[in-house]
């Protein structure tokens, strides 16, 4: 088997090439490699492939040619055309590696190198800064990412051996028939899935905290066209609003005023609207849903330290001293959710949270401490502890615009979603 790794700032992509015999694998690998050959060694006749290449029209043409010729051997090869035509931008630089083991540190450096091509001095300085920041984090944390390109499901593949990570039950007491999406499918998640989430937990989270969390995303789901199981949603009805997208992509928002409200000045009204989703729930469920997502991607060893968290997610115990949540409206919208997971290394300093995650959903980024680890020396509910954590994560705190809020409330109420309009001049 040969493994092609394409790294680029728009998107990275891996392709495995096999054949029924070793010889066939070599031939197939040569075919796939052929559009990327940059020169031939005059003496030996060996093909040479440059690591850094550009997605030019000529390259796309060579890729199209090869894919047409060999797609019958391996249908997955079609992904290659999509990658260069749709996922990379025209003329974007990418990095190609074949059968080399790349460490996360290498990938960081390659991405930075790619950004530097064509960058001016100021940008180059910024990029070098980013590498340093990541280096500092990696001294304390192992970093894992889950998203559109997460191939394998998380957790035990064999159904007979599965123990649900949320309720600790196994077959035959519970079943594992349904595919458990770690993050709700309606938020665009297709590829992050957890094997060891039983059907009962799947149903119960899906009906409660995940549904509550989802109700805050009516507007972005519609505006940015996030696909769910049934396709693109076109209408949502909240407590005081309806929002609809017609076939031409025009949005219609209906707003029902409460009796106590006076008709606002039209200018003001167009700037800010408070929408109330149809569900009422404790605000803590927002934190719970985010933690349910993080809990779903933990490995077996890490999860052992989060027994109290598990019980809290299940409703077996109540917690009121949780850390703040950091939230940021990201200029870059993601159609598929993404989790960056930070797990503290065994021998690293202990005054930072054991597990932290950044969760990207549509137009929002959340940075969340997974609370209640046995490996934590404090709850991070206190401002000074939280500040120590936030000050360490330069990868986030260097960006202005984060909003912080406690989500501890247990009393059920209607949340409000503020949308701001600006005139398109
Ligand atoms: Zn379960």
How is the topology of this model organized?
Layout: E1 2-7, E2 13-17, H1 22-33, E3 39-40, E4 47-48, E5 52-54, H2 57-70, H3 78-87, E6 93-98, H4 104-116, H5 121-140, E7 141-146, H6 199-207, H7 209-214, H8 218-223, E8 235-237, E9 241-245, E10 251-255, H9 266-271, E11 272-275, E12 281-282, H10 284-295, H11 300-303, H12 307-314, E13 324-344, E14 355-369, H13 383-392, H14 394-397, E15 403-406, E16 412-413, E17 417-420
Antiparallel strand pairs: 1-2, 1-6, 3-4, 5-6, 7-13, 8-9, 9-10, 11-17, 12-16, 13-14, 13-15
Helix pairs in contact: 2-3, 4-5, 10-12
The structure holds zinc ion (ZN).
- Structurally, the number of domains stands at 2
Quick one: overall form?
A: globular
Q: Tell me how many strands there are.
A: 17
Number of helices: 14
Which small-molecule ligands are present, each listed once? zinc ion
> What structural category arises from helix and sheet content?
alpha+beta
- Summarize the amount of helix as a percent range: 25-40%
> What is the makeup of the main sheet?
4 strands, antiparallel
| Arithmetic mean of pLDDT | 89
Which strand order spans the largest sheet, edge to edge or round the barrel? 2-1-6-5
**Gyration radius, in Å:** 24 Å
Distance between the termini: 55 Å
Strand content: 15-25%
Low-confidence segments, given as residue ranges, are none
Describe the overall structure:
With 425 residues, the chain is an alpha+beta fold. The protein has 2 domains: 2-103, no CATH class; 142-425, no CATH class. The chain has 14 helices and 17 strands. A hairpin with a 6-residue loop joins strand 3 and strand 4. The longest helix is centred in the N-terminal third of the chain and has 20 residues, at 121-140. The termini are far apart. The relative contact order is 0.10. It binds zinc ion. Zinc ion (ZN) binds at residues 164, 166-167, 169, 174, 198, 200-201.
